[in-house]
Write a structure and sequence with these properties.
76% helix; single chain; mainly alpha; 197 residues; 9 helices
């Protein structure tokens, strides 16, 4: 991979990782509701899970979807249903009460598994492996995945920190409830390109 292509890949990884999407919206909600430290497994699940996804898509999984186009429709429906369920969970998250267990953030495995039904993650993985790895070799795909892994985790962490900082303003149950409903609404809005391609 040439230096120019590597720089372009890093820029694509940064822009696609830092911009709003299901992962980042959920991390902002997690940061606001649970704090940065409790959201670490969620962040690591996204970073490592997505890196693995890029590698697997690059070394052949995309060919399975090319061979069986109906799988795209199945993935689309599963993605929509799962994201709607997550939006409902965020909207109905109980406001924190002192001394009460009020739920828990997404676990590492849940966050890693979520990448496989995240429409933005699929778009990013397919674009990265087809546009930035012209050689289509295992080494090229590993490099693409590594670049995404190095760029993605700090990018998504920014959203968790932003949510944690917002928690300072969400000091009443009504404010936190309004924030959670807003995040849920934005998560549903992120489905518009999937529902109306």
């Amino acid at each position: 991979m040439t230096h120019d292509l590597l720089v372009a890949l890093a820029l694509f990884a940064f822009v696609s990782s830092i911009t709003p999407g299901p992962n980042n919206l959920m991390l902002m909600a997690s940061g606001a509701n649970f704090g940065f430290r409790r959201s670490l497994p969620h962040m690591l699940g996204i970073g490592i899970g997505f890196t693995l996804m890029v590698l697997l898509v690059g070394i052949g999984l995309s060919q399975v979807f090319a061979a069986f186009p109906a799988l795209h429709q199945v993935l689309r429906v599963v993605s929509i249903v799962y994201l709607l369920w997550l939006a409902w969970k965020i909207a109905h998250a109980a406001p924190a009460r002192p001394g009460a267990a009020t739920g828990r953030p997404m676990t590492f495995l849940q966050a890693a598994a979520f990448q496989w039904v995240n429409p933005k993650a699929w778009t990013m993985a397919l674009t990265a492996t087809t546009a930035y790895a012209p050689a289509q070799t295992l080494a090229a795909m590993a490099l693409v995945a590594l670049v995404f892994g190095l760029v993605n985790l700090p990018s998504v962490s920014t959203w968790t920190l932003a949510g944690q900082q917002l928690a300072r303003l969400l000091t009443s149950p009504a404010r936190l409830r309004a924030f959670n409903w807003t995040m849920a609404g934005l998560l549903v809005a992120s489905l518009i390109p999937v529902i109306l391609p």
